[in-house]
Design goal:
This protein has 408 residues and is an alpha/beta fold. Helix content is 42%, strand content 21%. It has two domains: 13-181, HUPs (Rossmann fold); 185-302 and 344-364, Argininosuccinate synthetase, chain A, domain 2 (Alpha-Beta Complex).
Length: 408
């Protein structure tokens, strides 16, 4: 047996990114059939809310020699989610990229486990049509370019999720989907994504009551508003309603509160990195609250030029993250710029949540650039209404010159 032109030794080790979902459940028996390798499963817990004892049991019963279960929820929120929030990173105006933000951390942990085990191969269950294959492999290559990748979806004869279900049934492996409810889902503390099934036809309205796992529909959401207050320190949320919380605790509580109020649902037809359009429905209640709160607090604490330029940076930052370039030099350089802008983004913001809406109900900062005396309609020492006359004459001078030239 050869991989990439190299003959495998007996019982080489391969680290498998394992979740216990449809794709990774069938990878273990397939690897055992096709490669003479020791399979080490690695479940990186970024908040997917699975029963890890059952995940462990299933991996071993399926044929893995051992399984690592790494709880990295705090690291995920602190070093990945909060960076995306500080950047205001949104892909194509809507998608907060919960999947894309988690992949680089998972890739990092897979490499660490491969090093610990002396494994030269990492296997993932990403399809050949998706973005995640690029994100995983770009992340792995950025950390250790010597590790080789096994990507079954690009090799085997299984060509659809229906085929995958049939294969699982043949092998006696239970999977969490059926042909009737065949959605592909990804869950972590930042979001839940839903793809496939009836969503593949953009003419269909998505079936909210069938899809949502974290969020209530607008019809089911609370009939009275919920008020919350968030405190930020240098762009990082630290307190909810006056209570200090760890990053994962804070995001988890915002998921609960936002979910009750129907906040954070996105239905988007997005442009995938691999060249096609795809439709996804995303639930991101807590992250949506944080993103909106942070953007509004920045409006209070950043000057116009910095805020406008940061909007441009946010678009590029979002593209880099979506494309799997978390560990790229440009992304790291943008992080340095963003961190410098966050020095003044400290303060509190009160929000009103109601039926999917997020509204500002007050905010303040010791670094506020808003001055009521200057901005009010009344007179102030720093601004004289008469000064506007000269300003407008100079500002409109190019327009007047162009008009004169056109009318000659």
């Amino acid at each position: 047996m050869e991989i990439m032109g190299r003959r495998l030794k007996m019982k080489e080790k391969v680290v498998l990114a394992y979740s216990g979902g449809l794709d990774t459940s069938i990878v273990i028996p397939w690897l055992k059939e096709n490669y003479n390798m020791e399979i080490i499963a690695a479940c990186i817990n970024v908040g997917q809310d699975d029963d890890m004892d059952k995940v462990r049991e299933k991996a071993i019963e399926s044929g893995a020699s051992k399984i690592y279960i790494e709880d990295v929820k705090e690291e995920f929120v602190k070093d990945y989610v909060f960076k995306a929030i500080k950047a205001n990173a949104v892909y194509e105006d809507k998608y907060l990229m919960g999947t894309a933000v988690a992949r680089p951390l998972i890739a990092k942990k897979l490499v660490e486990i491969a090093h610990k085990e002396g494994a030269k191969y990492i296997c993932h269950g990403c399809t050949g049509k998706g973005n995640d294959q690029v994100r995983f492999e770009a992340g792995i290559a950025s950390i250790d370019s010597s590790i080789q990748i096994i990507a079954p979806w690009r090799i085997w004869d299984i060509s659809s999720r229906e085929d995958a279900i049939d294969y699982a049934n043949q092998k006696g492996i239970s999977v969490p989907v059926t042909k009737e409810k065949i959605y592909s889902r990804d869950m972590n503390l930042m979001h839940i994504s839903h793809e496939g099934g009836h969503l593949e036809d953009p003419k269909n309205e998505h079936k909210a009551e069938e899809l949502y796992l974290m969020t209530k529909t607008l019809e089911q959401a609370k009939d009275e508003p919920t008020y919350i207050e968030l405190h930020f320190e240098k762009g990082v949320p630290t307190k909810l309603d006056g209570k200090a919380m760890s990053p994962a605790e804070l995001l988890g509580e915002l998921n609960r509160i936002g979910g009750e109020n129907g906040v954070g649902i996105v239905d988007i037809l997005e442009n995938r990195l691999v060249g096609m359009k795809s439709r996804g429905v995303y639930e991101s209640p807590g992250a949506t609250i944080l993103m909106e709160a942070h953007k509004d607090l920045e409006k209070l604490t950043l000057d116009k030029m910095t805020y406008h330029f940061k909007q441009t940076v946010a678009i590029k930052y979002g593209e880099l993250v979506y494309d799997g370039l978390w560990f790229s030099q440009l992304k790291e350089a943008l992080d340095a710029f963003i961190d410098s802008t966050q020095e003044t983004v400290t303060g509190w913001i009160k929000l009103k949540l109601y039926k999917g809406n997020i509204m500002i109900a007050g905010m303040d900062s010791p670094n506020a650039l808003y001055d009521e005396q200057i901005s009010s309609f009344g007179a102030s020492d720093l601004y004289d209404h008469k000064d506007a006359d000269g300003f407008i004459k100079l500002f409109t001078l190019p327009l007047k010159i162009r008009s004169m030239a056109k009318n000659k």
